[in-house]
Amino acid sequence: MMPLRSWLALASFCLPLTVAAQSPAIDKPAASALKKVKPADIKAHIQYLADDKLQGRQPGTPGYQMAVDYVTQQLKSFGVQPAGDNGTFVQKVRLRRAFVKPEPLLVLRDAGGVPTALTAGRDYAFYPNPAAPTVQTEAPLVFAGYGITAPELKYDDYQGLDANGKIVVVVRGAPKSFPSTVSAASQDLLLVMQNAARHGALGVLVASANPKASVPNLKRGAYSVLDAKGQVAASRTYAAGYNLNLLASVDAATLNRLLTAAQLDTARTLAAMRSGKPASAALRTTARADFGSTYQDFDSYNVVGKIPGSDKQLGKEYVVHSAHLDHLGISTPVKGDSLYNGAHDNASGVASVLEIARLYSHVKQKPKRSILLVLQTGEELGLLGSAYFASHPTVPKAQIVADVNTDMPTIIAPLLSVVPLGAQHSSLLEPVKRAASYLELTVEDDPEPEQNRFIRSDQYSFVMQGIPALHIKYGNKTKDGKNNLSELVQKWRAETYHKPQDDINGLFDFEAGKKYVQLNFLIGYQVANDPQRPKWNAGDFFGSRFGAGRR
User: Fold this and answer.
1) Among 280, 255, 242, which residue's Cα sits nearest to residue 155?
2) Which of 228, 420, 444, 496 is the most exposed place for a label (fewest CB within 10 A)?
3) Mean pLDDT in the chain?
4) Residue 271: which residues within 8 A CB-CB, separation 6 or more?
């Protein structure tokens, strides 16, 4: 999963999900196939993918290529057909790593014309521009609160604010009243940038409200995806297709300076925003920005396989099972180890998708719709492989009906309950309920909404293309009745997540992994056999925002 810290640096109302047991109609072929899942097979996949010889599966390295070769061979062995570029199992993903050149310049000029030069790395940090090697901008500043326009919730930070030709200052966050998944999406930096651009802004300064927080360290660069013509196709820090070239982060002291110069009280302004009252205003300051960017381009790959559907018409539509194949490679040492194996994150998710492919090899009569198995690159770099596949799929985009994503299922304890992140926004919740009931699993609300997990993993790339999607995570239920599994997960996360300690020797419950495979298989199987395509709920935030125009 993309780390929360990186997500913060980059930047329908939720219905109760707990359901009573049902008696779902799972057909005999599916029920028979479920018995073929073996915990030992799941462990074997994880053991290979998290082996030291793969060197952490960082995109663009020989270790990542070994992972590509392994999953490709596994898919072939299960009778899966290639569905990548030109009859192969791979889709090329051209990645660009961009850096800010030394000696950037950001100068604030007050109403009296007095300039103040800010210090790079302390007061501010520019995000490199992947499309413009040189950026020079001078414009007035306006404060746009959270930078959110959400007519579905009758909220608009831009109401009455003239941002045309100006640089917008925003604070990451959302009003307390926003449902958790909607709040997470509203804080997505890409959406904030696109919204600013739609209001005519030339740039965005993302301000911290925390006096103790430092600006992000971008010395390692920022990543984007290029299309076949060499243009930026996807990025978490650049709004491709918009006339907005400047993105920077500024500290809390700079935010206070700007608000105070406009005779605004910072504490009252932030409190009003949290309560749901937009506090946007023109600022009495002009900013001049001048910086350059350099690039390193390299190729990586998504792996794409297909199980053809059995119906003449519905077989032209696709249900996607996805998981990210990459991890962090070799990085900062922790307890003397610098190799980030990524056993849980996300060799376990890849293992789940591979075992779903194996299950289909045991189903003689394939489902009506086709199944796509997509193992993506660049998730840890900002959901880039999935963003590229979802926007440039190897099958007609309009024919992709749903995505069932698996990212770090956290198989460290018996699986008794699950949280289907995103399913409550569409008709996908029903097959989740039926599958969970069949497997005697409880469906729950998210125990950790503050983690913003819905937009931090690859299913969100599909959602942004208007495709209903979900991501199954653990619930809170435990055998002892204390129902506090999230406490164990939080402890595990602090000690293991995104650290070299996430290897095959860590804490695993492969029986829980078996349940994840069975559950995800049953969800996708039902969707693939349903004559009706999944639909966004009427009036849903995500359906209204992204799903307009889809069948």
Assistant:
1) 280
2) 228
3) 94
4) none
